[in-house]
Amino acid sequence: MAAQLDDLGMPVAAMVGNHDDRAMMRAAMVLPGEVMQGFCQYVVELGETVLLCLDTLIPGNDAGILCTERLGWLEQQLLAAKGRPVVVAMHHPPLTLGLGVLDQDMLQNGLQVLELLARFPNVVQILAGHVHRPVSGTVQGIGFRTQRAVLYQAPPPVPRWDWDSFTPAQEAPGLGVVMVEQGQVIVQDLQFCSYETGGPTVKG
Q1: Which CATH class, in words, describes the domain spanning 2-198?
Q2: Residue 48 pLDDT greater than 50, yes or no
């Protein structure tokens, strides 16, 4: 996998999701910069902007968390940014998104994380994944964005569904191209194949 990503000719900042393994991630991928001991959290310098890549994994659990140790690291990095624009990336969104059963598996201490981020007006964007659906807005005065998945997409919240009735939305996979320059964050959607090619009819 690392060799394939090297062929992209662009920097890659790999992050753990709820199905990943930290030890395997650290063994298989070259994580940039100084990585927090015991976790997969690190800083990426993007010119004058600081990208903080967080590790929200709870092994064996679909939900996420930032424990006291990881929260302390985050606060240290926010202080170290000294007012420079900060983008925070994490797998689990730190807020509920009106997505029904998916909202049960967000960041368990999301409010605590948001209260910390809100202390730093230089935090300009939160980027998250996990929900397999594009959702954007603001929270605590900070812009946030979730992204389409490269596999199946979660259904919209209406009509209501649960895991017993789950059927992927008939929507194509996608990538988000994030452009960061002088504290400005722009995310452009990129559909790289048709639904018929990349949207399997997965059940459950």
Answers
A1: alpha beta
A2: yes
The residue-averaged pLDDT of 180-202 equals: 83
Residue 56: how many CB atoms within 10 A of its CB? 31
**Are 25 and 16 a contacting pair, CB within 8 Å?**
yes
The mean pLDDT of 107-135, rounded to a whole number, is: 97
How many CA atoms, within 13 angstroms, populate the side-chain half-sphere of residue 6? Answer: 7
Average pLDDT score over residue span 154-175: 92
Q: 176 and 147 in contact (C-beta within 8 Å)?
A: yes
pLDDT tens for 96-116 read 999 999 999 999 999 999 999
Q: How far apart are CA 73 and CA 88, in angstroms?
A: 13
Measure the CA–CA gap between 54 and 195, rounded to whole angstroms: 31
Q: How far is CA 152 from the centre of its chain?
A: 17
Q: Is 57 helix (H, G, I), strand (E, B) or coil?
A: strand
Please classify residue 13 by burial: count the beta carbons closer than 10 Å to its beta carbon, then call 0-12 exposed, 13-18 middle and 19+ buried.
Answer: middle
Residue 81 pLDDT greater than 70, yes or no: yes
What pLDDT does 154 receive? 94
Domain ranges for the chain, please list them: 2-198
159-183 per-residue burial string, b: 16 or more CB within 10 A, e: under 16: eebeeeeeebeebbbbeeebebeeb
Residue showing tokens 């920097």: 11
Q: Is omega for the bond preceding 121 within 30 degrees of 0, making it cis?
A: no
